[in-house]
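ping. complex inputs:
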Amino acid sequence: MIRLLREFLRFLRQEKKWWLVPLVVILLLLGLAILFSSSSAVAPFLYPFL
Amino acid sequence: MPKPPTYSTGERLRIGASLLPPFALLWLACRKDWISLDPRGALIAMPIALAFGFLLPAHFAPWHRVVEKAQSWIGRRLVFALLSLVWIVVLLPTGLVLRALGKRFLDPGRRESYWESARPPGSLRDGF
Amino acid sequence: MRRILGISAFYHDSAAALVVDGRVVAAAQEERFSRRKNDARFPRRAIAACLAQAGIGVGDIDAVAFHEKPILKFSRTLETFLALAPHGMKAFARTLPSWLGEKLDLHKALAAGLPGLRPDVAHLFTSHHEAHAASAFLPSPFERAAILTVDGVGEWATTVIARGDGARIEPLEELRFPHSLGLLYSAFTAYCGFRVNSGEYKLMGLAPYGEPVFADRIRDQVVELRPDGSFRLDLSCFDLLADDYLTNDRFHRLFGGPPRPPEGSLDQRHMDLARSIQVVTEEALLGLVRRAHERTGERNLCLAGGVALNCVANGRILREGPFDRIWIQPAAGDAGGALGAALAAWHASTERGGAGAPRSATQPDAMSSALLGPAWTDDDAAAALQVHKARFSRLDDADLLGRTATALDSGKVVGWVQGRMEFGPRALGNRSILGDPRSPAMQSVMNLKVKFRESFRPFAPVVLAERAHEFFDLAAPSPYMLLVAQVAESQRLPVDPTATGLARLKQLRSTLPAVTHVDGSARVQTVTAEANPRLHALLRAFESRTGCPVLINTSFNVRGEPVVASPDDAYRCFINSGIDILVVGNLWLERSEQPHASLPGTFEALPD
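pong. complex structure:
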């Protein structure tokens, strides 16, 4: 995911689409959070909170 | 005779953990005095439940499946809500401001020709 | 980088292709194995089939090439949502999870889908239209050519004109989303009650029953065609937030009513709509082709992209367009992107010497007649049939061909499974249902009793290439069933010109009534002994018995089912449909001798 974020930022710099930066960063962080919460190491301990 | 299914440590742990939510709710109910019991009882019951699930996975597997379904149902709705929030807080203002500044994303407007010079091919190693 | 695996996935029709030292060794669509039509999931079964064909494992792959640029496509999706705000919140929240899940982080998706892949293996990405262009030009028989790719949408481009020279493909100009001929055609497909991404053929097949009464309205209000071949859609007619790019109320008012529900009644208005959008699409394509000619000055044209499967338009491009020769990628849709991505990666590779190194074009092309899927030996097939306790006999070639020709001549419908499976949407004689084109009843028998599909749909003829000119006005070979031509005047019969709509279906229009569409056209496949010796030999056998070198060739499946892949799929389909004879390799099966009246199908029945 970090690799992806870096690649994405390289793309946005190349295209000068700065206005996409906040949206992309937030979405990727959200993606990371979803990933983290559903990965097998953490999931069991999140059960009680869902 | 079919072989009984075997469970990995991870699966056993997940099945055990799926027994925890009722006790977590019980603990919460006791803390808030909805039920007049000592909340510590629910806390003590949790590792015992975990151990039961871990040691007898086959017995609790159906319950685990129910919890898993509920979790994914809640998860999907949570993600939907979070994405709606992102749309309201980030996407909507960005879109409105950019369009107020004259940015045309999709409609080139009426022109003589709609051809654009082709995007030069990027490196095959890049995802863009 | 000798062994390159090409992949297309996650939108519709996922597929895998394996290129070894520049040669296309195998290619297949996931739907054939998963038995889910237009399956878009990661093509793990198709990959396994391709690797098995080459006798290698995942660890032997030297590079993986994906047919799209995920970051570019995702940014297009976000920009579309920015453009549509303050609408689209729900669509945004509904669409994004799949992006954040697997479609965006393809490094992760590829690693997950290919366990055992060496960590040093490069993940490569071509753009959607680069993949289409590569699939159109690199396997073509031309050293240099103009390339035109037209489809729904990839990243931003919906239409690209490029020049191919040696191994180099130079994109020249493009039209961008949402201004797309593919999406326009799909919008009409959905409006007429057919499923987007698979019902387009039905709309094309329906068109000859109608008149182009809405064509002017489409040109005036929906799509503006410029003299230079470019065009722009009027976005006020479309609902870009719908899942499948559907039409809105303004569109419905323009064309006289709400969309036809699937399975609703088909009336003259739908036929007229089909004809109208077909006419406008052909005009737009001819404009694009002329532009491609102007920009490149080339004499040859290569076509790919989903719109290149519109074989009626292709026939017009061949007859009326400015190019001397055209070659169309048989897997012109997104499945072909897997092949294009792998070929593009090979031709750009340093092992080959980069895109600057020469490429010598292969004749008649480098697609092995599109027979790129898996094959089963007679022993494998016999084992699969024995599981069902099927009754079959093993015949030698001469006996098999003779008996098949006799059965066809006596009006029997034959399921014909031979050699390697086709890559692309058309069955080209290795996973086909065959019939006698001279029989007036055959079209409705095959539509209604064999394939359980709409009666209006035409069937395609397969003809010996050396005798094609006697039956069809076809100016070029059509090995992939991608060109529509008129049935030759000498074969035509007079018809009552006052009949309209579906009443025309019953008319006897030629000496080959089962393959002659109501407008006198046919979607021809020509076959040479080199391209498909087995099918060629069968046509010869039928010809020597009947004098007719033509057969009906339709895909071996029933409505809603992907084309059969294995002998097991074929047997189940044979039992559950109205096919009389099944031939698998040299095995001969007659319906009346089988122990079953029906068998559970293995496919997921979807509305097609």
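Chain B has one domain: 9-100.
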